[in-house]
Amino acid sequence: MRIQVILSILCVMALAGGLLYAAPQGQIRVQVDLVSLFATVRDKHKAIVTGLQKDDFQVFEDGQAQEITYFSAESNLPITLGMLLDTSGSETYMLSAEKEAASRFLGRLMRKGDLAMVMSFDSDVDLLADFTSDRARLDRAINRAQINVASSGSILAQGPLPTSDHGGTNFYDAVYLAAHDKLSEEAGRKAIVVLTDAEDTGSKLNLQDAIEVAQRTDAVVYILLVAEDGGDQAVAKKMTDETGGRMIVVRNERNLEQAFDEISEELRHQYTLGYTPSNKKRDGSFRKVKIEMKNREYSALTRRGYYAPHPE
User: Fold this and answer.
1) Domain enclosing residue 24, as ranges
2) Phi then psi for 271, rounded to 5 degrees?
């Protein structure tokens, strides 16, 4: 069912901006130049706005207006989600509540066709459950997360990351690996939800590396900033703003539940917009994207841009 839904989405998008063709060995490939944006719209009171039409939106790339060629307000498109839990020592007093809230969040959010995975990170990045729709398996994985102990899952393949024996909190590496190694091959809506204080003390990669791979993967990053001292809000805000997600400061268990409810609502009330860029250059450059609402009392949350294809 999930494959059929995603293929249907890709076929519509191909008709809107490109060509669908059959590749050798029966593989189906989509050759498009369509840029897809997922957007959440809120009014001046921060309430989510539903029921909008294509003509309510304006899309700009590098300041130039673009023609919207694909639009959908469908709230049941499949979601592929990465749940990342910070298990460094700074999360000791909140981890139990985080695990309970994360399990309830997946129970409320996930519908037929959705997939989720669970990772933990401290001095290692551990894959506790690969993509699955099995809620019981996901719950067991979340419950296995422990503060800064030897891995109870499997260490995620480090891909291009160099090996290192130094410790610390590998926040940037975790986001990079979730996007690059796991989400890059997935289609449709993709999100990474991270519970952390956003204070990185051990990653081999930097903040911009993590942001760039999330942008290239079309993954929206949400950060629940859980920290007694406030955490690194500048880092969390930059990562979420650049990918179209949101940072929510969590100070207690009640805030944690509210934060998960907000994210669930946003993921289930997104508009999908697609356009074929007027800039046809295949130069690998970063293109800034902005969505403006014709009703100035509304604002749209989406990613800040995308990377153009490299020359063939």
Assistant:
1) 1-32
2) -95, 145
**Residue 236 CB neighbours (<10 A):** 27
In terms of domains, do 60 and 83 share one? no
**Model pTM?**
0.84
Give the Cα-Cα-Cα angle 49, 52, 54 (nearest 5 degrees).
Answer: 140
At 210, list the tokens.
Answer: 């993590």
Considering the domain boundaries, does residue 311 fall inside one? no
Could you tell me the CA-to-CA distances from 166 to 15, 116, 149, 201 in Å, in that order?
A: 50, 30, 15, 10
Q: Could you tell me if residue 178 is inside a domain?
A: yes
Residues 28 and 45 in one domain: no
Question: Each residue of 197-235: b (16+ CB within 10 Å) or e?
Answer: bbbbebbbbebebbbbbbbebbbbbbbbbbbeeebbeeb
User: Does position 269 have pLDDT exceeding 50, yes or no?
Assistant: yes
Per residue in 58-104, pLDDT tens?
Answer: 999 999 999 999 999 977 789 999 999 999 988 988 999 999 999 99
In this structure, are 261 and 227 located in the same domain? yes
- Of 15, 3, 83, 51, the closest CA to residue 295 belongs to 51
